[in-house]
Amino acid sequence: MTQFSAWNVIKNGFNGQKGWSRQWRDPEPKANYDIVIVGGGLHGLATAYYLAKNFHLKNIAVVEKGWIGGGNAGRNTTIIRSNYMLKGNREFYEASLTLWENLSHELNYNVMFSQRAHIGLYHTPNALDAAARRYNIMRQTGSDGEIWSRNTIKKKIPHLNFADDARFPIHGALVQKRAGTARHDAVAWGYARAADMLGVDIIQQCEVTSIKRSAQKISSLHTSRGEITANKVAFAVAGNTSRLWQMAELGNLPIESHKLQAFVTEPIKPLLDHVVVFGVAGAHFYISQSDKGGMVFGGDIDWYKSYAQKGNLPIVQDVAECALSLMPCLGRVKLLRHWSGVVDMSMDGSFFMCKTPLDNLYLNAGWNYGGFEASPASGWYFADLIANDRPDKVIQNHDLDRFRRGVHIDERGAGSDPKLHG
User: Scanning 64, 301, 304, 325, which has the fewest C-beta atoms within 10 Å of its C-beta?
Assistant: First the structure.
């Protein structure tokens, strides 16, 4: 497979771009694999890549019911941050951000990671006291964080609504400068290409239709492209986890599947160099500007359970109101499109990455709002779990048994409101 380099870009510029090979193979599924990862999103692809790279495993398949980049991987607002404070989340998301910082070089693929800063606005003096605790913990554990005054924000982003009678008056912000955004489809393609180069079979249009069990193990997966047996099976399917869990006759999971909508406007001239977010009084909003010029933004989940991948008007109205309250200058900008991803919301707002009641089944689920930013570390730690049959100490409490033990990793900063889902 052709490596990307300045020389190859120049050379192919002169030969009509004829020197590039396809980015990954399209193999027929084999009858047996050592490891099958169900779900060809960012987490599944990253897991396959790190299994092959870090543990030199070869007989691995990723099965995806659609196409690479067609699920949640391509249906998010691409924000990357590590401003978490609770043990288990703090170390995990900081490791993920560190991996992001070198990911383009690691994969030999430009994932367009832009460290443009994550700016969390606060609207009352009391909010500063509460949020500063999080950022102090970040700084004490080797991360970065700053507090910006109202005047500093006004100099950096003058077109926010600084009126004293604004719906959400701006008092200041908590800022993580190393945070930012990346190009979601480029990340998916980069991991797919890198995993394929290490021998991983990426099998698209291959839906798991049923699961056959033998005692306490999965004996085979029945798919739309035939039966596949595997020594180990891993689920990394985001909002559809409950469906597969029930196929494996394991009952119910402590998660709910909800729609999370995202929006993009028509392209406009450069306006916003940062990721700006706020959450107050039941409102939740985040916005950035893409490289194409569109304003990319989102807010709360739809407050009912759904597997749909399309939006609806109440959330359009809610998020548009938040956008205009923060940036009135967007009032005449046209909305280009909106869509939904299906996210699995755990009951404490934190993810599951663990072994399961079945001896050869491994679970990656419950990512709430944090799935995209977690992708590199998710692949890294999930691969480690599958290869070594034990969790790393960073994820040891992210198991299904933590609710019985009373080890809730309940971090509102992750974005979830699980106790109010209905």
Answer: 304
Pull the structure tokens for residue 24.
Answer: 């990954």
Short-list 191, 119, 115, 179, CA closest to 152: 119
Per-residue burial over 47-78, b if 16 or more Cβ lie within 10 Å, else e, is bbbbbbbeeebebbbbbbbeebbbbbbbbbbb
pLDDT in tens, 243-262: 999 999 999 998 888 888 99
Beta strand 32-38 with 226-235 is parallel
Q: Amino acid identity, residue 87?
A: K
| pLDDT for residue 21 | 84
Q: 416: pLDDT confidence band, cut at 50, 70 and 90?
A: very low
DSSP string, 213-282: EETTEEEEEEETTEEEEEEEEEE--GGGHHHHHHHTT----SEEEEEEEEEEE---SS---SEEEEEETT
Express each pLDDT in 19-72 by its tens digit.
888 889 999 999 999 999 999 999 999 999 999 999 999 999 999 999 998 888
State the Cα–Cα distance between residues 290 and 71, nearest whole angstrom: 20
Using a 10 angstrom Cβ sphere, with 0-12 exposed, 13-18 middle and 19 or more buried, the burial of residue 342 is buried
Mean predicted lDDT score pLDDT of the chain = 91
User: Does position 421 have pLDDT exceeding 60, yes or no?
Assistant: no
In this prediction, residues 73-79 reach a mean pLDDT of 89
* Band of pLDDT at residue 329, cut at 50, 70 and 90: very high
CA atoms within 13 A of residue 276's CA, in its CB half-sphere: 26
Query: What would the two tokens of residue 133 be?
Result: 């605790």
Residue 417: how many CA atoms within 13 Å on its side-chain side?
16
Is the distance from CB of 325 to CB of 306 less than 8 angstroms?
no
Rounded distance between C-alpha atoms, residue 214 and residue 339, angstroms: 40
For residue 217, what are the CA distances in angstroms to 33, 249, 349?
15, 11, 29
pTM of the model: 0.94
Q: Which of 361, 386, 100, 44 is nearest to 211 (CA)?
A: 361
| Largest distance between two CA atoms of the chain | 66
Q: Phi first, then psi: what are they for 275, rounded to 5°?
A: -95, 120
